[in-house]
Amino acid sequence: MHLTVREIWTVLHGMGFGAIYLLAFAGGMAGLYSLRPELLTAEGVRERLRRMKVGLWTMAVTSWLAVISGTWVVYIWYRAKPVPGADLAHYPRALLVASQATAGWHNFGMEWKEHIAWFAPILATTVAYLVHHYGRRLIHMPEVRRVAMALLLVAFATAGVAGVLGAFINKAATIR
After folding, report:
1. What would you report as the CA-atom Rg of the chain, rounded to the nearest whole angstrom?
2. 80: which DSSP letter?
3. Alpha-helical regions (H) of 70-118
4. Closest to 96 in 3D by CA, of 21, 165, 169, 15
5. What is the largest distance, in Å, between two alpha-carbon atoms of the chain?
6. What is the pTM of this model?
7. CA torsion 60→66→69→71, rounded to 10°?
């Protein structure tokens, strides 16, 4: 099996950074939900917060890596303009917009994906900061926990939409 440098970057962007981020969401959400006084001992709070801080900061960093690698590495190859007479298979955007049947993948999918994806790292970083800043005080601040969980849910949804659109777009016009 042979992968080009572009294919390696595409896999790293989506299935590496993106997948780690999406998988870490469940741990972050469960940690925030269960951070309640009736569910934890003092020792449990310490252990849970340490794990949550590491997990949420890791999630924030991987979401930034996914968006940055997508914007400044993979997206450059996607948007490349073909030279006259070139095989459009090597120019994903041009290949998609060349046909009415696939133009929607670019006109809606990629245009939406490239903007919505930036919400994920911004919101994930916000949640990581909230947990880092408030720490054990979060146990007695259900409103802040609910806000953090809502932000984390929106971050997950935006990353999920961007990931699904990216997978479909890559299936329709692979970056080679």
Report:
1. 19
2. P
3. 75-79, 92-97, 100-104, 111-116
4. 169
5. 69
6. 0.89
7. -100
- The one-character DSSP state at 173 is S
Using alpha carbons, select from 143, 144, 139, 133 the residue that is nearest to residue 41. 139
HSE at residue 68, side-chain half, CA atoms within 13 A, is 8
Other C-beta atoms closer than 10 Å to the C-beta of 63 total 31
With b meaning 16 or more CB within 10 Å and e meaning fewer, what string describes 6-45? beebbebbbebbbebbbebbeebbebbeebeeeebeeeeb
d(CA 123, CA 91): 32
Q: Which candidate, 115, 133, 90, 70, places its Cα nearest to that of 98?
A: 90
Going from the first residue of the chain to its last (176 residues), give the mean pLDDT of each consecutive group of 10, the final group possibly shorter: 88 90 88 83 84 93 95 92 91 93 90 90 97 94 96 95 91 86
